[in-house]
Amino acid sequence: MIGIWANVAAIIVGTVIGWVFKKVLTDKYVATFWTALGLAALGVGAQTVVANLPKSHYPVLFIISLAIGLPVGTWLKLDDRANAWIDRTFHTALGEAVATASFLDCIGALAILGPVNAATTGNQTFLYTNAMLTLVCAIVFGAGFGLGMILEVPVLFIWFTAIYLVAKFLSASFFSPALITEMSIVGGLLIVAASFSLLKIREFKSIDMLPALLVPLLFFIGLAIF
């Protein structure tokens, strides 16, 4: 679990460092961070999709995931509820930033295999590597959006801990390369959507898209059972 706590610490420390920079920057320069983050997220998301799509054994699963996940998220009003709470608490629009940072830090091979390896072999290398990337990401997001980015901590902690516990007490083999590929494709598309919102190209309710990530998990659970 120490690797998971390292990722939590990376978010907190990185956000504080970024917030310090934000205090000395004018709004004009802070706005450039929004653009930089949007472009970076767009690149990471697109690269994730392009790299994983050729490896997919279920090439329509990501379409089904989005087709199911987005209506469910919309019906549950996840984005509206999350943003309403954030607005009341922090008096700022942090929702898209927190969602984007969470997608970047929690989706991909490092973020999934890290907790699995830690649970099964005690090897924390992947988690430490992810923590370094998370630290850099948190600094940039902290500079752009301030201390509110610490809201990513419970998202990352719950996600990593859930994977860790499943691998520790149920089955590490469940997190197969095929599952990671499918989740990476869906996650990459969610990152692209979030980047569009940051760049003001088109507004997407990123938090409403989160249920789409559960569809590949449920699909592979079904395969394992039947």
TrEMBL record:
Keywords: Membrane, Transmembrane, Transmembrane helix. It holds the Pfam family DUF554. It comes from the Bacteria. The chain crosses the membrane at residues 6-22, 29-50, 56-78, 90-114, 180-199, 206-225. The keyword Cell inner membrane does not apply. InterPro entries: DUF554. PANTHER family: INNER MEMBRANE PROTEIN (PTHR36111:SF2), INNER MEMBRANE PROTEIN-RELATED (PTHR36111). This is Transport protein.
